[in-house]
Amino acid sequence: MYQFVKYILMLILASLSLISCKQKQGDKIRVGFSQAMTTDDWRKQMNSSIKIEASLRPEVDLTIKDANNNVDKQIEDIERFISNRVDVIIVSPIQSKPLTAVVEKSIKAGIPVLVVDRKIEGESYTAYLGADNIEIGRIAGRYIISHSKGSGNVIEITGASGSSPAYERTLGFNQIINENKRFKIVNTIQGDWEKESVKAPLKAILLQNPNVEYIFAHNDRMALSAWETAKTLGLEKKIKFIGVDALNSVNGGIELVKSGVLDGTILYPTGGNEALKLALKMYNKESISRNNILNTIVIDKNNAEIIENQMDKVDQQQLVIESQQGAIKVQEREYASQNNLVRLLSFFLVIILSLTIYSIYSTISISRKKKQLERINQTVIDQNNEIQEMAQIAAKSNEAKLNFFTGLSHEFKTPITLIMSYVESLIENDKIKGTALIDEVKLIHKNSNRLLRLINQLLDFRKIEEQKFTLRTSNTKIYDFTNEVMANFKGEAARRNIDFQLSCKNKNLELFIDRGLMDKVYFNLLSNAFKFTPDNGKISISIVENQDNTVKIHFKDSGIGIPDDELSNVFDPFFRASNNNKNSSGIGLHLSKEFVLLHQGTIELKSKQGSEFVITLLKGNSHLQPGEIIQKVESLTSIPNLITDNLNIEPDLKESNTISDAEKHSLLIIEDNVDLVNFLKAKLSNEYVVYNSDGSDAIEKALEIIPDVIICDINLVDKDGYEISKELKKDLRSSHIPIIILTAQSNKESVLKGLQSGVDQYLTKPFSLSILKQSLSSLLFNREKLRYYYTNNIYRVEPESKFGNQEQSFITKMNDIIKKNVENPKFSVEDLADKLGVSRVQLYRKVKAIIGINISDHINNVKLEKAAELLKSNEMNISEIAYSLGFSSPNYFSTAFKNKFGISPKEYKTSS
């Protein structure tokens, strides 16, 4: 009985130890934040951002101490953090010098310190995060100089004495102002970051010297106070005011800019979330920069509304996150309660099981049979463990071999790719074209390509083994796809007089397939067919649509076949049939089967008078996961030459055009080298509608076509590429078109001159075709992003902002003309084109390129916006509004209005 009680106590102690261990595992990273922001808005913004970031990191225990602008209180808070041995301390100093000693104390205690917003004296801190206050001062100075039209007299209102932001902002501001002799800082007022410190001294200065053009205050509160003081003297419209902070709050910098009180304010980011991320990196001893600077911008009337909208969206998202975090905390409390109950039940279950085990053990322990069985059982367990250990050793050995070959394959790819790149350049070199060397160079390129494909096949095998392949299926006409692949084998079939046929009753049959993977399946099967089929033989592909929602694709040849007793092994990796005397890696058919299985299909082999492989695929896409389906069809841009690998013949090179001309972007090539033009046309015509010019009519052709992108040489027959690019970029009709310079001139001066002429990219010859293709794709993608901006901001595009002055000036001018004529029923697209000084076709292409809709739809949208305003005013009935805006009938107007706003004009008028 004593042994039993002892056994139960041991189990209880073990359970308590397990619970204690779990509690220790739940320890969090303790982060202390000493807050010293001087205003409620700053404090709210900083605390909100750092709390949100902490809520997303369950391993963090964040404690915030607010010193309420009291230096002694802040020192006391940091001392408490040190005594509590927190893991990291974040400090936002009220003043630099008083906090230096306590920060040094923390560093000596082994606790890293992140200083944010304001620096301390000395270097005794781990890292600093904040805005570059010197740069803020410089930005203010540059803004005043660039916008000044008056006396150039400036008053500076600084922050509190001893504050590092005040000192640094003054330093940067003075650097810029003192560099320009026309500008002068006539007075400097020592403020304390609050409004009341400004009014009296500023009033006295303005009474003595009212000829002041700008007042720069170190924060928006003091700038507002300066405006209020100037207003009492009637000078608020004569003087312009610049502040710092740009808070999105009542009487914050953004609101003051929008209301016209401030001419501009400089964003001063709090960086709460960045501070916590940096603190965690310090805790984890990751490599970080000692000085981490937050970015800033000037906010004026041009971008205040955009910035305000963005900040409002961020605030809304933060509220959603806080709400979600609250719900998560409630669930965590429920989970903790349920977890404790489960632990308690588990504890009692352990006791019950212990009693049961003890009872059974006591009953049968006296039996010799039991002991013998235990010894036999132990022997079996030992032997099983040995077998498992041997299996693990074998698995590790196999994994090591595969990792070695995979790693070696990756290492091979780099030098092989370099060899192929240089060989391609040699093939294009005029010096060896037409010589005996060209055949030898092509042979090098062919075998390099062959080696690269074999390595890629090994990497595919490795990916299959690790289940790393992801399907990217698209709706594909299987007959057309099969024809595309067969085109690469027709040259070999003709050379060897092989009857190579494709049969399919439904040529419009569509299947969801991954074109890249299925291409490899086709090539493996056809490569084997050509390898083992003798001259004058027959190879056929037949596509059969079945009643059971499946499609069978038969690959049949009249080759040597495979022995019956080996049919079951043909899809095993590294298998080679006994009658196969050809060179083979042995993994092609294995990969083919795995790729078909990824499509939820099957592949089988029949061998009678040759070989017949049958692939069975399901119709539709219900058998696929949503992530395995893509909308855009991916064309076969590169086809592996498995025939060439095994038969040492030249493939029949034909590029398939799988994209209709209507879906292609247009490309204008301005080049006087006919061979190069033909080469680029051959390589790019699958993806682009290609036009060309020798340079003599380049500008006229560009304005006629309005292409999506232009490739231009420098040395041309008439004007050089720099002049052509400059003229096209200055012309409103063509300014939006991206231009790539493609030239042999690679010196620094030529590149600089090209960029100065307005081109978007500068590439030198000899060039990489893949880089050229990617450059074209990237420029078109960036144009799509700009189009997205214009589409979403079409009715409030400013004529001068950072997104492209030419396009924005065009849109602004066009919108103004439309709005002035919106009530003119006779106003047409031709009238608009005439007022803009362009042809109707050029206007259509320009608007389509910039905003993605045709000009008629755009004019209609403007009319409907005007209709909405008239409906709100209740001055006209619906019929009057319809006819006044040029709509043919009230019914047509109602239909168009409902399509745009989702409700009828009558409902809209009632709701407003």
Automatic annotation (TrEMBL):
Record PTM 4-aspartylphosphate, positions in chain: D713
SUPFAM superfamilies in UniProt: ATPase domain of HSP90 chaperone/DNA topoisomerase II/histidine kinase, CheY-like, Homeodomain-like, Homodimeric domain of signal transducing histidine kinase, Periplasmic binding protein-like I
Alphabetic keyword roster: Coiled coil, DNA-binding, Membrane, Phosphoprotein, Transcription, Transcription regulation, Transmembrane, Transmembrane helix
Span of domain HTH araC/xylS-type: 812-911
Gene3D superfamilies the UniProt entry points to: 1.10.287.130, 3.40.50.2300, Histidine kinase-like ATPase, C-terminal domain (3.30.565.10), Homeodomain-like (1.10.10.60)
Pfam families: HATPase_c, HisKA, HTH_18, Peripla_BP_4, Response_reg
EC number: 2.7.13.3
Catalytic activity: ATP + protein L-histidine = ADP + protein N-phospho-L-histidine
Response regulatory domain ranges (all copies): 666-780
Annotated Histidine kinase domain residues: 407-621
Chain ranges passing through the membrane: 341-361
Positions in coiled-coil regions: 366-393
Enzyme class: transferase
Protein name per Swiss-Prot or TrEMBL: histidine kinase
UniProt organism field: Flavobacterium ginsenosidimutans
